[in-house]
């Protein structure tokens, strides 16, 4: 599997005194929490309710309108001044208006268009770098994000196909087929911008694991098939594994979050098949709570994937599922404890939100120094004039 873990990643303070200045736009902050002193977060949810507490804002209609106008003006002023070096924003993705009326579809489309315009305006000019995060479930990039791909410096794609040309299928230049794209400089430049990404998990979710010998279950699985072939196959196999004597916990009803976490922590192994997309919050949740994840086939490029037999297991779709699971469940307790520790270490190192944020900024800075115009009176040092900057590890 192709990874980017071998490439040196730049630290946030490598190229600018105190680190780069970052502007993050969107609905949910990622980089802001990792670099709060260097990041300005512009919440684009222009709502009547407080975006943190969801409580309705107090005041009359004119007062609320005035507040909204001030927020819009503040966003515009920040983007106009450009007192930052890197812009980080989520992609637009599908409209997600299925089942709604045409006016609602049009309104959502216009909101996406306005957001895209704001991001591109904020990142205008050659000095500011633009990093786009795509956390959608699709292997391909949505056509609404074609402008982002063309204008950005890096495009971080969850569900990035192992063959990256598959991810670019819907956004290649007009008239370009996959065969032609491999020899076209413009298409090669688009491919070079792609980086793998993941949903990740909060660091607070990691908890000390229970020793394998003290866990109540051998295998835990909770989920509905929803027309997904692997999940349908699992549903028929689990009763047969229970008949072999394995302690299988597969509740038919939905568990509370507390019961779900307790079931994971109390199981030696947890099945974690993909849903619409392969990358899933449950993968990292299972490892964080102290169990060993068992995945279905992985068709993706990853930042640093779980390795078969070290941090988890992958099931080959060509093998008999019942026989394969029976063999994996025979792993001794010492082996389960080793894998649990390795999986937790991987999640903490690569897949916490803080680690993902540092990865995004590190990969962006690895493209080269961000050049901020110096004041007329400032005289660059010899090192600055020659561009002598190191690129040590992020951690």
UniProtKB/TrEMBL annotation:
Record region (Disordered): 373-395
Organism per entry: Methylorubrum aminovorans
Domain of life: Bacteria
Descriptive protein name: Glycosyltransferase family 1 protein
């Amino acid at each position: 599997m192709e990874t980017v873990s071998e490439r040196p990643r730049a630290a946030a303070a490598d190229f600018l005194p105190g680190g780069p200045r970052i502007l993050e736009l969107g609905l949910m902050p990622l980089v802001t929490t990792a670099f709060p002193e260097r990041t300005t977060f512009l919440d684009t949810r222009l709502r009547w309710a407080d975006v943190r507490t969801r409580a309705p804002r107090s005041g009359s209609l004119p007062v609320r309108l005035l507040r909204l106008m001030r927020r819009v003006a503040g966003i515009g002023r920040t983007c106009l001044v450009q007192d930052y070096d890197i812009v980080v924003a989520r992609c637009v993705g599908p409209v997600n208006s299925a089942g709604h009326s045409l006016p609602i579809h049009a309104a959502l489309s216009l909101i996406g268009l306005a957001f895209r315009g704001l991001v591109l305006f904020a990142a205008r000019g050659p000095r500011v770098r633009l990093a786009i995060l795509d956390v959608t479930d699709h292997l391909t990039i949505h056509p609404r994000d074609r402008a982002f791909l063309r204008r950005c410096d890096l495009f971080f794609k969850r569900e990035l196909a192992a063959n990256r040309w598959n991810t670019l299928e819907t956004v290649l230049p007009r008239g370009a087929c996959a065969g032609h794209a491999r020899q076209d400089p413009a298409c090669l430049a688009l491919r070079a911008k792609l980086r793998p990404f993941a949903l990740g998990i909060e660091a607070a979710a990691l908890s000390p694991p229970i020793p394998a010998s003290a866990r109540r279950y051998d295998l835990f699985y909770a989920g509905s098939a929803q027309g997904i072939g692997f999940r349908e196959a699992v549903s028929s196999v689990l009763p047969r594994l229970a008949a072999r004597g394995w302690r299988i916990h597969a509740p038919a009803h939905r568990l509370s979050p507390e019961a779900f976490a307790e079931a994971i922590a109390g199981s030696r192994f947890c099945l974690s098949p993909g849903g619409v997309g392969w990358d899933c919050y449950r993968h990292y949740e299972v490892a964080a709570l102290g169990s060993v994840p068992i995945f279905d086939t992985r068709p993706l490029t990853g930042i640093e994937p779980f390795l078969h037999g070290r941090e988890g297991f992958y099931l080959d779709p060509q093998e008999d599922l019942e026989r394969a699971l029976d063999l994996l469940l025979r792993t001794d307790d010492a082996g389960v404890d080793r894998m649990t520790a390795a999986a937790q270490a991987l999640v903490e190192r690569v897949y916490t939100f803080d680690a993902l944020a540092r990865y995004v900024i590190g990969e962006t800075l690895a493209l080269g120094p961000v050049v901020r115009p110096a004041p007329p009176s400032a005289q660059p040092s010899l090192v600055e004039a020659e561009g002598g900057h190191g690129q040590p590890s992020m951690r």
